[in-house]
Structures are given as structure tokens and as C-alpha cells.
């Protein structure tokens, strides 16, 4: 029997969906449109000439061109965060076999938030490099805790038990966050802006910090995709195909936590992107993770960037943080999915 956690591709042949090319091209066109919208729309709209100057004419020092240049890092950061959250959602759903699993629903974001607020309150941290390690530790510990509680009792880790465990732990951790912040006004002032979830503070320094975590998480996701397809058939079938299910779940879950934790550290807890992006692609292309994972990355980038632009337009002349926009859109969709699927496993 194969000792690798990744199953043999010959056992799970690659069948390209008939509409894959059309969906891919449509998503890429949407992605380009989102990038343009992110660069030109906001509290100060810019024209096409200013956009061209800002992108290709560094010698031009007009106000509009400088606005475009300032928005480039924000747009790149938004695309990276959305892609990471999309892939994280796909991995969480595959590992838990839960169609409504998402880092925010399973309490991973809240665990990262607790560790960050503890770092601010007790360790006086203030930089992204410090946030990221605490957020990753909090996300990982919470994920293990949720899965452990959800696995107790008869039937093991069923979808409904995981969701309930995630909701309960998230509520408990949120209470701890509040308890730590209330007597410390300086912590509340620093934490409340981060807690909303925003890509507005995206800088080239933050992007550079994020890139290694993004590359490692994405690489693991792509490598484990064939074996995760086997896992969807059930543990017994996957084991018969040579998949070490325990090792696979651990590796894939770590990749999901790595992606989600890094985003949470740098942008704050942004929910529902993994849920929305993965469901959109699954409805169109099916459940083959070799297509679902990369396309969830593209769709997640589109959804988060659209949400960021929408928040700027709705809140003009200020802006509405993207975490608020995604929660406003994602919450009713989650309720609808739960009602239709009745929390069935994948």
C-alpha cells in the first residue's frame, strides 16, 4: 500500500469539466475588471488618463496618478488575501467534509484574534511580523480544539457537530477577547481597527511578509488536492486507494490554518470569503478539488476585491471596512445554504 498521504493520479483520473475553459476565462476577465475598479474607484475617482499615468508613467506627479500608485499595494494585498481565504475555505470543507465549513464559522478567526489581543495587552506587540506568528498559533490551536470537540461522541466529527463546536468555541473566545480589552483602553483602541477586517492598510511591507505563507499554503493545497478527492469518497475507500487519511487531514488542515491565520494577522478577521468562493465554483464546476482549489483562489480574490470597492463606494467620502461588507453579504447566504443542504456532509 502506498505510504504517501497523496493518492495516485491514475486512481483518480483527471476529467476536465466541459465548461472549465469558459468559467476560467470569465473569472479572469472579472478579475481584471476588479483590479481596474479597485484602482480607479474610491473617495477620489480617477480617470483613464490618470490610471495610465499612475501605472506606466512614474515621472508624472499628478494627484490622480499618486492616488492610483497608492491603491496598487491595496489591490495586490486584496487579491492575495481573497485567494488565500478561498483556498483555506476549500481545504476546510474537504478536511471536515462539511459544505458550510469556513475559517470564520469554525472559530479559527476568533482564535487568531484572541492571541493577537493577548499579544497587544501583555507583550506590547504592534507590528505585522509579530501579529502573524501569534495569529497562526491561535488559529492552529483553535482548529485542533474545535475538531477534537466535534469528534467526540457517536459518529465522530459530523458536519453539524463541527459547526456547533465552532460556534460555541468562537462565542467563548470572543468573551475572553472582550474581557481582556475592557479594562485596557489602549488595547481596545489598537485592536478595534484591526478587528473589523480591512485591506486598507495593505502595504508592500505587509505583502512581502505574507508571500512566504501564501506560497507554502498554496503549494500544499495543490499537492494534496488529488488525495482530498479520494477522502471525499470516505475514509475506507481513501485508505484502499493508498491515502493515509490522518496524515492527509493534518497536512491539509495546517495549510488551511496557515493561509487563514496569515490573512487574519495582517488584515483582521474577514469572514465568509472561503464559504462563498468555494460554493460558487462547486455549483459550476463540481467538487473535483484539482479544479476547485485554484478556481476558489481566483473567485475569492474577485469577491474580496469587489467587497472592498463596494465598501469604499457605500461609505464615501469615507469607507466601510471590507469585513463588514462580507459579513453583511455572507450571513444570509450561510443561512440559505444551511437550510437547503440541512448540513449534509460532502
Automatic annotation (TrEMBL):
Keywords, sorted A to Z: Cell membrane, Membrane, Transmembrane, Transmembrane helix, Transport
Recorded topology in the membrane: Multi-pass membrane protein
Signal peptide: none
Transmembrane segments: 20-41, 76-94, 106-125, 132-150, 162-182, 203-228, 248-277, 289-310, 322-339
GO molecular function, one term: transmembrane transporter activity
Annotated Gene Ontology cellular component terms: plasma membrane
GO biological process: siderophore-iron import into cell
Subcellular location(s) per record: Cell membrane
Database matches in InterPro entries: ABC_BtuC-like, ABC_transptr_permease_BtuC
Superkingdom, natural source: Bacteria
Protein family per UniProt: Belongs to the binding-protein-dependent transport system permease family. FecCD subfamily.
Record's protein name: Iron ABC transporter
Organism name: Paenibacillus borealis
